[in-house]
């Protein structure tokens, strides 16, 4: 499921679109000891507008268009459809349309029994349908038989007591300390998932999309134990792995210009393939081409294959996860942030026997702590 497909579902996640219906919502509460304390299904038809809007706001956050980072696609293994396995649990819930209380309870217990989560949390799951309008070869809407995409969207939300503080007591006409012991369900999910995926403008029950609020801290237990899939590297892990490969292959030749030029090359790859609907990746072969183009010695380039395999196996890396939007130079006591359009103004050199960072200044007037200073 790519960014374009995710955007289509997110854009139409509203009754106002005319093609979308949220039919029922399952809500559940799991305490800190992983006991399902409550679950209930409500019809969206009889729901108040205010309540419906809260569900819309919460669930829509799961449909994150930062595909490959916060919203990642996973494929179910073959055994996942066996009875009691994750894919079968999700498919049974989908087919029930949240009308079967036994199926809903089984789903809630499946999450509670398999998730690793700090503290209590709420589960909000909606059964939705989206009418997929037929498109012609020019990607324009056309007359034809429309398909209905039916899916379940789940948000897992942390639950906390609200912070205590001071309130004005109008009855006693005084300021008093307030302590609220009510459990407040956050409208910002920490995790979530979409099943089945919307792929090639059709339903695909063999894949699931997992959402993590923090791309650098995904809940691996949800991917592996709740959804039954094999976890792949997070965006942060991919970048760390790429840096490790670059450091091992380039060795002592790794300097400011090499790092900057590799980043430029990655941006070129992203730009050249920006219209591709599939995720843009780089493997060992493409990395070798980049290193060759920027002049890394061939004996170092040939080290790419074994190093890449040792770090990543046969899994390519997502280009968008590797690109730095700014250059940060750090040394004890000094940090310099450089925007992309100024990267060419920075050089490293040895001046009078000392290693120096040189910055070209076009305008002799600069600011230091907000104050203008002229360099002579």
Overall description:
The chain is of the alpha+beta class and 376 residues long. The chain has three domains: 3-231, no CATH class; 236-322; 327-374, no CATH class. It is 30% helix and 31% strand. It contains eleven helices and 20 strands. It has helices at residues 3-11, 49-60, 86-96, 101-114, 220-226, 235-250, 256-272, 284-293, 298-301, 304-312, 319-322; strands at 20-30, 36-43, 71-75, 121-132, 147-161, 165-169, 174-178, 183-185, 191-195, 197-199, 202-204, 207-212, 281-282, 317-318, 327-331, 334-338, 346-351, 354-359, 365-368, 371-374. The strands form seven sheets. Strands 1, 2, 3, 4, 5, 8, 9 and 12 form an eight-stranded antiparallel beta sheet that branches. A two-stranded antiparallel sheet has the order 6-7. A two-stranded antiparallel sheet has the order 10-11. A hairpin with a 5-residue loop joins strand 1 (20-30) and strand 2 (36-43). Helix 6 runs antiparallel to helix 10 and helix 8 crosses helix 10. It starts with a helix and ends with a strand.
Shape type = globular
Please identify the structural class as seen in this structure: alpha+beta
Average pLDDT level: 88
Helical amount among residues, as a percent range?
25-40%
- DSSP summary, beta strand count: 20
The biggest beta sheet is recorded as:
8 strands, antiparallel
Low-confidence parts lasting 5 or more residues at pLDDT below 50? none
Total domains: 3
Relative strand content:
25-35%
**CA-based gyration radius:** 26 Å
The number of helices is 11
How far the N terminus sits from the C terminus, by CA atoms, comes to: 57 Å
